[in-house]
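WARN retry 2 of 3 for item q-0093 after timeout on previous attempt; input resubmitted unchanged.
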Amino acid sequence: MSDDDTRQTVEALRAELARSQQQVADMSAAQEEFLRAVSHDLRAPLRHVTSYGTLVREVLGDLPADVAQAPELQEALGFLATMDQSARRMGLMIDGLLAITRATRAPLHCATIALADAVAQARTDLAVAEAGRDVQWHLAPDLPALDADAGLLRELLVQVLGNALKFTRGRAVAHIHIGAEPLAGGRVAVSVRDNGVGFDPARAGSLFGVFQRLHRETEFEGVGTGLALCRVIAQRHGAQITAAGTPGEGCQVRLEWPLP
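OK item q-0093 returned
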């Protein structure tokens, strides 16, 4: 290849790189606009729904006693309660989408973090969920250090450990095991196992999708964004996250994470 051909190739590669960088910048700007729309524009009508629903209930509550006991009015109050519950649920769904988007965009500030310390910090965040319960934590003594962004790792652990607490809520004694084992290729497998309600293993493939739930809302709260957030955080660190479960016998979440 002549010098002229080499220069032309280099210039073509530079032009292609510039186009790619512009596309990334355009996508970033579009995502930023989406964030603004979700955080402000979509919340305004939700606030109207919840606030005006409250006002309607107050107006109906001022009606004479004989009217207030009418079946039609009680039915209307039931409709208002459903409307309010749905609006609040949609607000939580928006919060979940925002958390996923922020985790996707947040700059990574990685450092070597002792997993045992990160677990302790996550448990502090989950103190309310653990309060008043008999929860037995079983931490392996040789938990490794991980190369991770401290804030994102803490958020991931809050979601995973929070699920373990939530789905063991019906157990007299909840057992949550956290362990690790080395893998080939400079990676480590971190596992969180519980004795909760578990889930149908045939549906494991959809577990990390947005708004995917394996249990009825009347049984367990949540809108199905927590594990989707965990997947984004894991992928940004070059890690993989999977889950396995058996109905009535608990669940295990497994993270394959690069070692420092």
